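Lecture notes, unit on binding sites. The following record was shown on slide 14. It pairs a sequence with calcium ion.
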Amino acid sequence: MGPTVILSLLAVTAVTVDGKIYTKCELATELVSQHGVNRNEAHDWVCMAFTESTLNTTAVNINRGRTSSDYGLFQINSKWNCDPGDGRKTYNGCQHPCSDYLNTDIGDDVQCIQQLRREHGGWGFSYGYRAKCSSVTSSYLNGCNY
Ligand SMILES: [Ca+2]
């Protein structure tokens, strides 16, 4: 009975958590080759994602006061930019359920971030970027072929 229960729990986890942990080089390559990110800005994107989520698409962090959570590779915020689907108030600026920002298809995540960069005129919306990435250069991705 015990082993059977453990096996079925593992199976459920494997099916429901469709996520991915990128390496810096892998993310840079995918952003540039598949999602239209400017090669000259790839280091900004990868640094931001690394700082926000350590490159884990399934990262979810609950913010202080529990009024919102941040989702996925770029930690998209449930109060402003996606719908958590649990009744908490949201402006849902990027018009997606937050769960869309936890899967392995990062195209919609990139589109949301592109929108936020346009709206904010840069990366100022990201605490992680402001704290750790504002002075990074392409040397951040030294050794990557992207
Ligand atoms: Ca996604």
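Take-home: The chain has a mean pLDDT of 92.
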